[in-house]
Design goal:
InterPro entries: Conidiation-specific_6 (IPR018824), UPF0654_domain (IPR052670). With 87 residues, this protein is mainly α. Helix content is 68%, strand content 0%. The protein has helices spanning 3-18, 24-36, 52-64, 70-86. The two termini are 26 Å apart.
């Protein structure tokens, strides 16, 4: 399974765990699959399952968005700088 497929499967299992229309049995199965690993690098972090690349792109977009407040732009820029330092 390639990393993209593994990431998509992980997203599906995570969504099932938070969906109120999914049975407890299915939620438990999702937990077990995620805990056991999917046999590939999902590219997701433990930080809420967010892809760091997508997060960085979103923060960069926020710094240039005219609908974002100056405070929001500053916060986005600081978070982006923190991400770059952690690499």
């Amino acid at each position: 399974m390639n990393p993209e497929e593994a990431a998509n499967k992980a997203r599906g299992y995570k969504a099932a765990m938070h969906n109120p229309n999914v049975s407890e049995q299915a939620k438990q199965h999702s937990r077990e699959v995620l805990e056991g690993g999917l046999g590939g690098d999902t590219g997701l972090t433990d930080e809420g399952g967010k892809d760091p690349g997508n997060r960085a792109r979103g923060l960069k977009a926020a710094t240039h968005n005219p609908n974002v407040t100056e405070e929001g732009k500053k916060s986005a820029q600081e978070q982006l700088e923190d991400m770059e330092q952690q690499e």
